[in-house]
Amino acid sequence: MALAVIALATSRPLAAQQTVDRRYAVAPDLSFRVKGSIGSLRIVGWSKDSLVVTGSLPPAVQMEIGVGGDGRSPARGAKMYLESPNDDAASTGVLEIRVPARSRVWVKCGTADVEARGVDGGLDIAVIGGRVRVNASPRELQIEAMDASVAVDGTPAWLRAKTATGDITLRGGSEDLALTTVSGTIRVEQGAVERTRLESVTGPIQLLGAIARGGDVTIDSHSGEIQLVVPRTGDFAVTATSITGSVVNRFDATRPAPGREGRGAELVLERGSESARVAVRTFKGTITVTAAPLRK
């Protein structure tokens, strides 16, 4: 009899996911806030003046959407809440949110896979774990994560990203950039940066992209390795200092000078009128300066 009861229990189908399909007319400059637990969240900016939320949620997750406005004109503000017992209960939830491209969107989740693309207004994303991927060039982009990796493809005018252990990758450039991590890797490539600050404690930092004319770049690390690529031609001034570590110059024949009391090293490279200034500092890490590869 016990075996029969067990067989019956295990043969019952799992509770079906809730289907989500909500649609609202909104203003093109919508402000939208999302808070709660979800397994996968995709945010898409599009050309329509409407907010559309589709996907599926586990039975344990409750969703509420509040849209402001007086009913006579499209709403300029909206909020969405996802309530669940914990992140595990919400891990199979999948939602896609479509907003007008000029919208400003705030997202606060636990462990989640968050993807955003096509949003030109603003994005503010905060997660604990998972990953964050942005393929867009909003006016403002801010990302905070604990253990999540962060990848940005685009040229946000203003970009701030901060992690504890997650890696940060920017494939593109920014006029005003600040990336900070404790032990993750910071990598900036392909685009040009202007006002820039890159900081880590133990994680490596790689600045492989171009430095815009008149750029001001500061790179700081306690013990992480730092790799800096500078242009073969152009105007710039680079000062690379390691207090107790080493500086490797693969740009030209200039030899780094020894630091105080014979410890550490400092390298100074100056070309032209010094229109771009780069200051690289580490306490005990290694700094490597190389020339940008020749273009084919």
Explain what this protein looks like in three dimensions:
The protein is mainly beta. Helix content is 5%, strand content 60%. The chain is built from two helices and 24 strands. It has helices at residues 2-11, 87-90; strands at residues 18-36, 40-46, 50-57, 62-67, 75-83, 94-100, 104-108, 111-117, 122-127, 129-135, 140-145, 149-153, 158-162, 168-180, 186-200, 205-207, 210-221, 226-230, 236-242, 246-250, 257-258, 265-271, 276-282, 286-291. A twelve-stranded mixed beta barrel has the order 1-3-6-2-8-10-12-14-13-11-9-7. Strand 21 and strand 22 (265-271) form a beta hairpin.
Q: Short summary of the structure?
A:
By secondary structure, the chain is mostly beta strands.
